[in-house]
Write a structure and sequence with these properties.
By secondary structure, the protein is of the alpha+beta class. The protein has 8 helices and 20 strands. α2 packs across α3.
């Protein structure tokens, strides 16, 4: 008699089902979380402070246990196992290096705890330090290294015992901008070279867009959207994602008509605009029209589909000029242009006319986030 087909999970597959976390039984930091992480994937958990991303990472690590739900690694239940039984590497923002140990001793610590023979330990420590380009600093103490070098040591320590999952909690947050950008690429190259499965927590959207195979956007204890960088940037699922990831104009409107995949909506200023329809769009219902600043063009006059306003602010960024346009009723639209391509007045108070391609705007749910 056939009892059913057993579906084997791929090696390295991480599965969270119905995971929730509450400390008082009333307020939930993470709520009913379902998430699959594939072997070799670089997944970033992105969101504001208090959104649930770090708590999710801590539950994967075993430093926190879920109130309910399951966490499986390769089909094995992990939700009740302590960190040392999960075969994970951790990299923290604070480096967490032992100050009395040398760089080599810090990197080899987890191998010593596991009882690895000295010859094998020394070889793996050398390989790990070579991977992060710190072989020449093996005998130095952490205090003799820069912040970027210390973070490389922390990365080598997390990778030296070849864990099946690497967790990184804001690892670059304490570094300056240039070094942070350099290490973003370095970490990603190492992850690709070693086929690592990485879960990376950050509140820095540019970091997430640069490094990730997929990004999970967290807010209010839930994943609001998960996908690759291009999809999340170009097609935000709701108003929260549109506002949080990159610059976006989120304009209050009412849907007047729907023609196939295109919505015609009236802004509070009275202007009629067009946008791509989403599942939330209904005739007569409130909507949020989301349009990126770089997708907005200046028009030559008051034509159908054009939004009218006046220049409220002009901000020069060197590689771009942002003009803030105030509409009647007080709503604002921010435009973004390269300095040599701007064909509009930049005088405060000057009238301007704006337009965009309907396929570059989205008619989203008027609410702030998916509940």
């Amino acid at each position: 008699m056939m009892l059913g087909t057993v579906v084997l999970q791929p090696q390295g597959h991480i599965c969270l089902r119905g995971v929730s976390k509450s400390y008082d039984g009333d307020t939930y930091i993470v709520r009913d979380l379902d998430l699959d992480i594939e072997k070799g994937e670089f997944l970033t958990l992105l969101g504001p402070s208090g959104s649930g991303k770090t708590t999710t990472l801590m539950m994967l690590a075993g430093f926190e246990f879920p109130t309910s739900g399951s966490i499986d690694f390769d089909g094995e239940a992990m939700q009740d196992r302590p960190p040392e039984k999960r075969d994970i590497g951790m990299v923290f923002q604070s480096y967490a290096l032992f100050p009395h140990m040398s760089v080599a001793e810090n990197v080899g610590y987890s191998l010593r705890v596991r009882g690895v023979a000295k010859a094998e330990l020394d070889r793996r420590v050398r390989d790990a330090l070579a991977m992060v380009q710190l072989e020449q600093f093996a005998n130095r103490k952490p205090s003799a290294l820069s912040g970027g070098q210390q973070q490389r040591v922390a990365l080598a320590r997390a990778l030296v015992f070849e864990p099946r999952l690497v967790l990184m909690d804001e690892p670059l947050g304490a570094l300056d901008k240039k070094l942070r950008e350099d290490l973003q690429l370095e970490i990603r190259h190492i992850a690709d070279k070693l086929d690592l499965t990485v879960v990376y927590v950050t509140h820095d959207q540019s970091e997430a867009l640069t490094m990730s195979d997929r990004i999970a956007i967290f807010n209010d204890g839930k994943i609001q959207q998960i996908g690759n960088a291009r999809d999340i940037y170009a097609a935000p699922a709701n108003r929260f994602v549109a506002s949080f990831v990159g610059d976006n104009n989120c304009l209050c409107a009412t849907v007047e008509a729907i023609d196939g995949d295109i919505v015609r909506a009236r802004l509070t200023s009275g202007d009629i605009v067009s946008a791509i329809r989403t599942d939330h769009a209904r005739e007569g219902a409130a909507a949020t029209i989301a349009i990126r600043p770089e997708s907005i063009r200046f028009a030559g006059g008051d034509l159908p589909g054009v939004v009218k306003g006046h220049v409220a602010d002009v901000v020069y960024y060197g590689d771009q000029i942002r003009i803030h346009v105030e509409l009647s009723g007080g709503a604002r639209i921010v435009t973004k242009s390269a300095p040599g391509t701007l064909h509009a007045s930049t005088e405060i108070g000057a009238p301007v006319f704006l337009t965009w391609d309907a396929l570059q705007a989205r008619a989203l749910d008027a609410r702030q986030a998916k509940q």
